[in-house]
Amino acid sequence: MKSTILTSLLFALLLLLQSSCSRTGVHWLDWDEWNKKAMLADKKGLVYIHSPTCDDCKEMSNEVFVDPAIIEYLNEHFYTIKLDVDHQEPIETKGRVWKVKRNKEGNPYHELVAALCQSETIVSYPTVAFLNENFDLIVPIPRKLTANELLMLLNYVATDSFEHMPVEQFQKEFELQ
Fold first, then answer.
1. Which of 47, 70, 92, 144 has an alpha carbon 20 to 30 Å from 85's alpha carbon atom?
2. In what order do the strands lie in the sheet with 44-50?
3. What's the pLDDT score for residue 119?
4. 123: closest CA among 104, 132, 110?
5. For strand 127-131 and strand 44-50, is the pairing parallel, antiparallel, or unpaired?
6. pLDDT under 50 in the chain at which residues?
7. H or E element: which one contains 157?
8. Count of C-beta atoms within a 10 Å radius of residue 77
9. Is the overall model pTM greater than 0.85, yes or no?
10. Please, which residues have CB within 8 angstroms of residue 19's CB and are 6 or more apart in sequence?
11. What pLDDT is attached to residue 10?
12. pLDDT of residue 152
């Protein structure tokens, strides 16, 4: 009887902790908050470039960005913002106003999305763009990531390992931990 009660209490505690973690979630900033944080230069940035119609984007939002380890690591080491590829309004950041323009084919694109994805014509989403403490682009990762892949990349960027080690080497060492 005592073990059943203890098991029930532990299970309830686990559910409470999990729901608490998922309730708080990733602290996604708006552009005003983002610009204020950029002045602090104390954390790296992560821009999640997505489309509301993209199935891979929905999977990342519903499976990866709700993972407790991802939430904890992101909130501790990164400033985060979501950027919809269909965003039409100008965005002011880093002393510049980024607007919607048209490429050579006449298709609209947002300058900030193009800069972060390093392309005006082909934007793959989801894309996770990593930025340094000055919010300058380190690298965009143009594909759906699993929680394990993202956690490895977060560690790779947050520890500045990208400055002296190829990602493949870091990945092997990360998997050994």
1. 70
2. 78-84, 44-50, 127-131, 137-141
3. 84
4. 110
5. antiparallel
6. 4-22
7. helix 147-158
8. 15
9. no
10. none
11. 38
12. 96
Structure tokens belonging to residue 24: 């708080």
Looking at residue 108, the DSSP 8-state letter turns out to be: E
Residue 50 CB: number of other CB atoms within 10 A?
A: 21
C-alpha dist (Å) from residue 98 to 89, 114, 116: 9, 10, 12
Amino acid at 174: F
Range of the domain at 158: 2-176
Distance CA 82, CA 109 (A): 16
Quick one: pLDDT at residue 1? 54
If one counts every other C-beta atom within 10 angstroms of the C-beta of residue 41, the result is: 11
Find tokens 């965003």 and name the residue. Answer: 87
Domains identified in the chain, total number: 1
In the structure encoding, which two tokens stand for residue 162, read together?
């990208």
CATH number at residue 38: 3.40.30.10
- Tallying the residues shown for the chain, one arrives at 177
> Residue 54 CA to chain centroid, in angstroms?
16
